[in-house]
Amino acid sequence: MTEGPMPRKRGTKRADPGRSGRRVRAAGARAGEALPAPPAPAADSAPDESFLRDSHAATAFAEIVDRSLHAGVARFTAGLSPIALADAYQDWAFHLASLPGKRMQLAEKFAKKWLRFANYAARHLSQEDTTACIVPLPQDHRFDAPGWQRPPFDLIYQSFLLTQQWWHNATTDVRGVTRQHENMVAFTTRQWLDVFSPSNLVATNPEVLARTQQEFGLNLVRGWQNFLEDWERAAGGRKPAGVEAFEIGRNVAVTPGQVVWRNRLIELIQYAPATGSVHPEPVLIVPAWIMKYYILDLSPRNSLVAHLVGRGFTVFMISWRNPGPEDRDLAFEDYRTLGVGAAVDAIAAIVPRRKIHGVGYCLGGTLLAIAAAAMARDGDQRLATLSFFAAQVDFTEAGELTLFINDSQLAFLEDTMWEQGFLDARQMAGAFQLLRSNDLIWSRIIREYLMGERPAMTDLMAWNADATRMPYRMHTEYLRKLFLDNDLAEGRYVAGGRPVAISDLRLPMFVVGTEADHVAPWRSVYKFHLLTEAEITFVLTSGGHNAGIVSEPGHPHRHYRIAMQAADGHYVDPELWAADATRKEGSWWPEWTQWLSSRSARPAAPPPLGAARAGYAPICDAPGTYARIR
Question: Is pLDDT of 542 > 80?
Fold first, then answer.
């Protein structure tokens, strides 16, 4: 820290004329004579303050060295802080060492589990049908194949699951360990155990062994070729194999429209009407900028945009620009003003005197909630309704993603972004894949590298590979103010120079959560009920964060629950809501379009594309240019 001038201690004397000097000055004053000039201070009478200050070069050098070191380490840790992880394990280990009773309990559990396993093995040798001593969790499908039920593979996977269960017992319910540290230790230990799962090895996976015998090892040859191809693509910064079959503007993001506004951050797309008359109130969709916008405009068969325009809605979509190093200082407030604010202004000029149905997806929903709260605070009444898809405004229960959010981790992540000016898409992808490692990492390794299979690329998979970067300043503010400090839910988040409150939102809301969401758990999304007194129609749909939203009519094996809470209704906790809500089969999209229609005026002639006189003339065809920036 830079040191300032050293204060003089009370009661000390200056190194200037002494008492005799003061008597001379006093005598001269009495005689009316001019006071003599004080003697010059000695050269060593005061310290050189410039010497006490920290060198600017040393300060800058220290920051560069420290941050560059962290950025270099992050390349090998998927952006995760090893210090934060060591801190969590130290907390767990020290507390466990101080609890002899807990250790005795774990020893007893160990003995019982292996006694049960020995009993199972003995009975299994003598009986045809034997009940397993442990059953995988419902979401664990690694051992579903019939081959796992035959010896010796049944004994192998049963012993693995018992070991995994014991480690869960050992890493949880340790008195004194902070909740986040406990979750980090349990999560990381589970990840390490999954590395050694018998399903990941050729010799202990009956499916892989059977395929290898059947094909005389050609599956492993194909798997090795797949591995080399993926490695080459990753090293060259290229997308996964098969993505080339999906091209923006050719077979995805093909709903007709025009870009009617562009600034340094967004292109605003207005889609062409598909019906002779449309509802007068336009729809503004605010997607997340962690990925490209066109998840909501994939192939024509599963495009939410095409679904809306086909039912008589005028739809506007924000397409975010993929930021580069020059955008490192873009703030979250810039996304509000240059994004939602600019889009609302443009729509108000193109479709004047009509209120807007605001729709936000994921991080875009959080931004829309902030913008809408600021508009409500300032008396801006241009919004008609609000719809939120897998979007959070309270981050206290944001799922396993919060494992990576603490001061140590954020400092490490900030250093990573500081070096390059943004958070790279590949760095974000690593963290998200860890949250579902069995589905996104190990199952893929087994299928593509051991079984030698390449699954057919889908439009949703291709979109998932089209990630974007996150500017340094914006992402830092997002993680600190929202995830870490929960400022938005607690009324401290500042927009436009003043705090905003979700409680100011009184418009009708349609809120969607998904059952298997690992990014925005549905119970976290449900907290809209706690933060506002607005009328809320809540939908809980099957699927995950992406597949649950892209749930077009006709999609097989889809269902949802729906219930409405009136503006003056009483709060119902999420578990009771899920038990009492009406379950329906199929897609929730028709439910939502009907909800929008009931809160819109009678259809009229569609508005023109853009408004040239107001400065919003069409610029180019959809999907525009920003969606193509890599």
Answer: yes
Rg, the chain, Cα only: 31
How far is 241 from 422, CA to CA, in rounded Å? 26
- Report the distance separating Cα 254 and Cα 310, nearest Å: 14
- Nearest residue to 390 (alpha-carbon basis) of 591, 526, 530, 592: 526
Per residue in 171-189, pLDDT (tens digit) is 999 999 999 899 989 998 9
Please tell me which of 57-71, 111-125, 129-143 the model is most confident about, judged by mean pLDDT.
Answer: 111-125
Give pLDDT, residue 39: 53
> For position 74, what pLDDT does the model report?
63
Q: How does DSSP classify residue 55?
A: P
State how far the Cα of 220 lies from the Cα of 201, in Å rounded to an integer. 12
3 state SS of 56: helix
Give me 519's structure tokens: 């990014």
DSSP string, 192-247: HHHHT-GGGSTTT-HHHHHHHHHHTTHHHHHHHHHHHHHHHHHHTTPPPTTGGG--
pLDDT at 17: 37
d(CA 221, CA 213): 13
Instruction: Check: CB of residue 316 under 8 Å from CB of residue 284.
Output: yes
Q: Helices in 388-482 by DSSP H: which ranges?
A: 407-420, 425-435, 437, 443-445, 459-464, 472-477
Separation of alpha carbons 622 and 315, rounded Å = 12
Determine the Cα–Cα distance for residues 491 and 487; give it in Å rounded to an integer.
6
Residue type, 492: R
> How buried is 286 (Cβ within 10 angstroms: 0-12 exposed, 13-18 middle, 19+ buried)?
buried
Sign of CA dihedral 504, 506, 512, 513: positive
Give the CA dihedral 341, 343, 347, 350, nearest 10 degrees.
Answer: 120
3-state class percentages of the chain: helix first, strand second, coil last, to nearest 5: 50, 10, 40
The whole-number pLDDT of residue 429 equals: 61
Q: Is the pLDDT of residue 417 over 70?
A: yes
Active site residue 362: yes
177, 253, 295, 362: which is the annotated catalytic residue? 362
> What is the pairing mode between strands 620-621 and 257-262?
antiparallel
Tell me: pLDDT of 267 over 80: yes
What pTM, to 2 d.p., does this model score? 0.84
Q: 3-class DSSP state for residue 80?
A: coil
Mean per-residue pLDDT of the chain = 87
Would you say residue 28 has pLDDT above 50?
no
